[in-house]
Amino acid sequence: MSIARQQSDSNASICQTIGGIVLALFAASAYAGEAAVDPADNGVDVLQDTTIDTDSRSSETSAVAEQMITPPPAHEPVGPLIDAVEDARGKAEALQLLGSEIAPGTSERLSWAATELFEGVPVSTPVLVVNGTQPGPTLCLTAAVHGDELNGIEMVRRVFHDVDPKKLSGSIIGVPIVNVQGFRRGSRYLPDRRDLNRYFPGNPNGSAAARIAHALFTDIILHCDALVDLHTGSFERANLPQIRADLRNPDVLTLTHGFGSMVVLHSTPTIGTLRHAATMAGIPAVTVEAGGPSQLELVEVKHGVKGVETLLTELGMVRRMRLWGDPEPVYYRSSWVRADNGGILLSDVSLGSTVRKGDVLGSITDPMSNARTQLISPYSGRIIGMARNQVVMPGFAAFHVGIQTDDIPAIAEDPAPVEKTADGGYVDGMSE
Ligand SMILES: [Zn+2]
Asked: Whole-model pTM?
């Protein structure tokens, strides 16, 4: 597997010379630009989707900030975690998947292809299955829906390596590289530049993206009782390991309680995301964000694995594999702090930093005039996502602040998912 394809951090290579800056600019554009997407312009020049842009919000998360929400009363689990996902009781049975039968107490590596022939050449991706000796729910793990997001691939490998089918209750299905075509090219997108994570649950007669989404959804996702979709930040941005979940959904809320000590960010799912489609189909789903794209980051990988293994324990699927107490705070609001000037962005904070309103988050220096401006946090909270040091344009989303609030947010009676935007759904700062 060629996951050794690590992108060197182009930001670290920014030189003092003008030539170096030009090179860095080139590197930055080449990086994002395999689809020529500059996060600062929301990628509108690339993804000519037909969706009408009725949504002027600048990011998924600022939309969250606008939309005050309320969890179920008292923010308590609505019932035992297992009740949120459990579907199978009684005797362990053989698992039927992709035309194979996986007997209780065994594990298998299957192969899944969205279509028999893609571009005339078979394109398949592995599907890992562990079927336990005891009955229980089926938990699914998906990674690399965006082909350049590598941390989740390694998380899936580690989780499966640690599970003993003889000691498992229920089953685990893992698709470590969903977007195998993007993965091969080191790209977030499919070869047609579409974002696969805007096309679920898919359409068998639609675009290539819609067909792939439909096949994955019907062949695999509908077999799940709960889903964890593993992602990273996008376009030279990294995320503090965190769960993104629609906390208005009681089953999803309950699922988040299983992860132990991981930051939870309430996030209204965008239409077309796997998280949204699965939840709409009655399969509670969360996204785990950890680290940035195009790199394998051990600390983030371990954090994600610990969260998933804690979930397996809390679901009763394994016996005390991990337990991770002291839950992190839940952030109901977050906001991106944007660059008002172009230039070289250098951070003064790191992921996970606690910041106060008025704190300096970083600076942007004009490489020609040497003029420098500071980025100031308008909120007290925690840095839950941030851009790597790089050359930025005005408007660039640089720091993602999870906003502390003591207030339980007000009720939104009729939660509406976030609509796709004109560019097919990518807004800068969004990663899922
Ligand atoms: Zn992603």
From this structure: 0.78
